[in-house]
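TA notes. Do not distribute before section.
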Amino acid sequence: MNWIEKLYRTYENCKAHIGDSNDEVPLLPVCHTTQKAHITVVIDGKGNFCRAYVVPKSESRTIIPATEESAGRTSGTTPHPLCDKLQYVASDYLKFGGDKESCYEMYFALLEKWFNADKNHPKLKAIYEYVKKGQLISDLVKAGILHTTISNDKTVLINQWEDEDNVPEIFKLLSGGFDNKGKSKPCQADSFVRWSVEIPGDPQADVWSDKSLWESWQSYYGNRNPAKGLCYVTGTENTLADQHPAKLRNDGDKAKLISSNDNSGFTFRGRFTTSDDACGVGFEVTQKAHSALRWLIARQGRRDGDQAIVAWAVSGIKVPDLLADTYSLVFGGDQESASKGTGYTAQEVGVAFSKLIAGYSAKLGSTEDIVVMGLDSATPGRMAITFYRELTGSELLKRVRTWHEGCSWLQRFGKDKVFVGAPAPRDIAETAYGRRLDEKLRKATIERLLPCIVDGEPIQRDIVESCVRRASSRNGIEPWEWEKALGIACALFRNLNEKEGYGMALDESRKTRDYLYGRLLALADSLEQWALNKAGENRQTNAARLMQRFADHPFSTWRTIELSLAPYKARLGGQSQKRQALIDKVHSMFDPPDDYTSDKKLSGEFLLGYHCQRENLKPKKDDTADIDADEE
């Protein structure tokens, strides 16, 4: 139960963020959840209707009181106690043609019990008095928020607005009709209503921001059940939770980490009499822990489909994003911040990265509790923890530094994103298996790479080999995509073979066969590209076109490439002598000579030699010059 205890402590340490309007997904008070509201109804302190307005999408997220059952409802008719859909809060729902079961009686009974327990709260009293009148939809129609038509001599709500001109605001949110799969879309009768109570002298009219109303519901609902049991998280006698919250990854997420509602399949038969025998979790503990997890995922987690990965400090201090590339981690994706430096050099990024780690180290300290958690769900209703690690602050920062320095290489992710550093796991997955890879394969690859970052484990060889094969083939791939694949493949191969001590600069003393063949390919590619530029031709070089074949059969393919250079050497004349001399020099470095004549397949090392030689040939005054720049 470590994970839930860590989340519970995180909530307690971050109480200052409860209900913070600056958070897209706020840290919730106990016994509360969030819903997307469509209509705000404004009433006065005596329960009289004042006005109403349609809520813009950007402001629709609303904190509302909830019961255990209503917070996790996926179907059925369990009401929220204060704010809910028209089906629940409007007694005249059926009168205006509502096509679902009216749940007003259940809603009002719950509201009345709360009101009777706290009759002194003015906002609760005003809402109770207004709802009791039973004229909500009538008032919304009169205010022009909802729209009606006559059907069979009855005034009913319109399900779908037919006229494409002058569409009312409510229909822009709830269009009605059917989607491409034939499933009915929500219409205005499905509107979710929230309240605002204007009381003289009270500046906080909105009930979803009123902390006194939060506390009123917590006090009432938290004391409803006198039965207590042993909470396995705190080790104390507390009111136990009957159900556990959902909506962890998004507002529509129905999957739960803890669920024990199987009363028909009896998955615990023969082992336990009731679910509490297996594990008891306090009501307040599970509310706080799940709220903290939801908040952390939205605030600093990474989501990929159903997969969510989040790292956090129990104290609430921000930690580095484990799944970001070096550029995004250092500059936050801010191109302007990056361009203010000396360029995209290893020195610039290295200094900025060191400052970043030093800043985190000063805030986190060496003993700060850090948790890394991965979540995923195979079915809509059940979620699993797929990855879990607990580290200290110093351990995490050491491993982040090791990953970004060990995988450091020149990366070209587009014209405006060129940097020296490590790629992100998502980019690695797309390089290894293609941009259109299956979602399950991408998630599985990211999960496999996570221990390489968090635990310092070696990168899996099959992923490295896939990236090398991708970077070795320039045919059928966009130039920018190949440049990206080349940088990622070099970074991973260098990391996997760190004992070899590969540098990012050209090593002219290295005499390994694969490295030298990579240099030869870069020299041939550069010479031919130079000649093509002189002639104004825009096509792929023979070295680029035969790169995959060269990786598989270097000696026989090199003969073809070298013979094809003859007309380009003639076109350049004396200008090519220096480049030809460099090719001859690399030829002479093969030792023993059998290395040169061997047609054995090349390893990823040839990409390092190719990339380093290519970068070395570029004009030193412009680190970001294109490969086809006129040289010499």
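Switch to the second chain here.
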Amino acid sequence: MAFDGIVTKAIVTELENNLIGAKVNKVLEPNKNEIILNLYNNRLNYALDINIHPENYKISLTTYSKPNPLNALNFCMLLRKYLIGFKIKSIKSYDLERCIEIEFEGNNELKDSVTYKLIIELMGRRSNIVFLNQKNQIIDSIKHIITKTREVLPAREYVFPEITKTSFLELKNFDEFYELISATSYTSISSNITETFIGFSKPFIQNILYNLDISDNTKDINDLKELYDYIVRIFSNFGTNNIYCKQLKNDDFTIDFSDFESDKMINFYIDDFYHKKEINDNFNNKKAELSKLILGSLKKCSKKLENINRKLKDCENMDKYRIYGELLTANLYKLDGNSNKVVLENYYDNNKLIEIPLDSSIPYNKNAEKYFKKYNKLKNTLSIVSKQKEETELELRYIESIVYSITTAKTLKDISEIHDEFVENVEIKKFSNKPTKKNKESDDFRNKIQKFNINNFDVYIGKNNKQNDYLTLHFASKEDIWFHVQDAHGSHVILKTNGKTPDEDTLYKCALLAKQNSKATLSKNVSVDYTYIKYVKKHPNKKLGMVHYTDYQTIII
């Protein structure tokens, strides 16, 4: 993300115009990386969001509320103790560094006038929020850091992060700019500038080059002069509405200049941008975590089925052991001595000769008993394992349906519903014998289920097994029509008839929805079954979303 020194400078300029004199009403800490200051100034309420997440670090005004932990974290309690009731005296950034200083003034418990500083360092993994007293000593920080050059610990004097680059703001003219750029190893203009000057990012420089139609590899002094003038023009317009955030093609942004005034503050653009990114990141992370959990169960279930099939394969030979035992028993009078095998006539196969392996250490009758025991053991195994196979295959199909639900999930709520379903119906069997308490609110799907209108008929689509189960078995009436693709995981589609008879076009469009919301969405010639709800029943295994149905017709999509 291009949250560089230029963005920081633009945001701080806007904050100076709006927050000087603002009173601190509340201090919130939604998570270990974020502080939100609720402020009041000129009859307006503001919320200043300071986030030091390693990837989504930023500072901006925000309009989004966030849930807070019931028990406030230590740093939050510290800021509440010192800053509630204090006013912002000044806000400034250090050159073009991503470091911001907010100074607060007010009276302490003894009614003495004191000042405190909040230093926000936005530096990726090393981002931090440091709280200082008026002697520039650290009271505390969100992160305690010890390096060779500085210690960020309570009671230590605050030391600014080491600066190794040149300040563009201190340049007097283009000649100094050109001299510094020319002195670096020449790879590209954007690389040279970002390696030389504080606070510049490649997207910022590359966007200017694009606006000026200049190559990133140019060495022409006139091109460089144009670039320099454009940068100076941007800096000279900080604090005006001509500076705005520009969306780039690669889901990034940068600061740019326009002759037309922007109607949106940079603070709120940044707020919207990172809020959307945070939601997407949370969704992707939760989806990945849940996928890993469910795929683990799927792997275990598949392995269990493999073991069952192996046992069933062993049971294929059980009749052979019964025949061995019977032939040995029938021919005991002919056999004497000890041997490791015997050849007998098999009266089950036209008296063809059959060789029977033997244990020479025991008598022939004991060998027969041994084969009968083996036969009975395999017979019992077959009975038990056949039932286990049926149950395991159903479990496997059910887990696969949950995997499909994850692929179609689009929001955090969808992921949460799938997680609850998985825990209640799969994991709970492994880790607990206690039934889970159902949350009535989570079972109310009326406002969550997708609803369409087709030819003046209401059509509902379940997004996961819980919703499918609710729609088909609880929500739909007997005369409503149910749609589902054949032999594939997918959504239950319910056509509410309300006593009317839908035409063929309506039925076809509902079947099309069933195909589009199934695993077969990309397949050709998909069969979609439909029938009245009264012919759809809960599957005997009582798995969520699984049903069996009769009296159906089929539409080929």
